[in-house]
Amino acid sequence: MRLPELAATLAAVKRVGILLLVVAAAGAAGVAALASQSPKAVRASILAAAGTRHSVHYVAVSIGKARTNMDADVGADRGIQRITFTKSGRTGHVTVIVVGKTAYVRGDAFTLHNYMEFTKAQSARYAKHWVSIPSPQNAAVVQAVTFPSFLKQLRTPKLRAVRVLTGKIAGEKVVGVHSIGKVHGVRFVSTLLAQQGPLRLPVQEEDAVAAKGFRSFVMMTRWNEHVAVHAPAHAVPVG
User: What pLDDT sits at residue 24?
Assistant: First the structure.
């Protein structure tokens, strides 16, 4: 089945300032070749390809009660997220770095409190200073900041692949799969697109939780590039 153009989705993406590349119809030969593969097998092949890499650059946007823009480079044992957070007309920024088992955070008071969930006292105290959070206290902070945790999110459990998609992004052939399921008790819809060919590396993912008015978009590039991230000097342990 061919991926349709979703006008509403494109409009939402434009509003948050990220370009969702339009997928056009693939050639008949490509469609026929993929028709013999089950959606489950296609999804498994995409996730398996991602698992052969050790790093990735991704750009993500999530839309809900608040908006989050993320630019990240993640490697095997280190990574960095540059985050812009907007809520109720206010915008702030925070950077998260992970090196080994320690997370380092630097942001403004607004974002530390509303996005990172620091207390108001902590947010005022640590605003615009690097702070360190050791494992296991940093479990929520380090999500998708290293490659293994990014893969864990990409491999959302309890999803059932239901439809194979084919098309082109910027002239390059892609294959994808549409999946549905329940996550934390609510209906979750996901579309994952990858390069066509022997190694189906993911290029784009769109997730939605209609009941919560939530939607996210992730663009993945620069697989296996070196991630040069180091622990900030003079970081203060969070009290």
Answer: 37
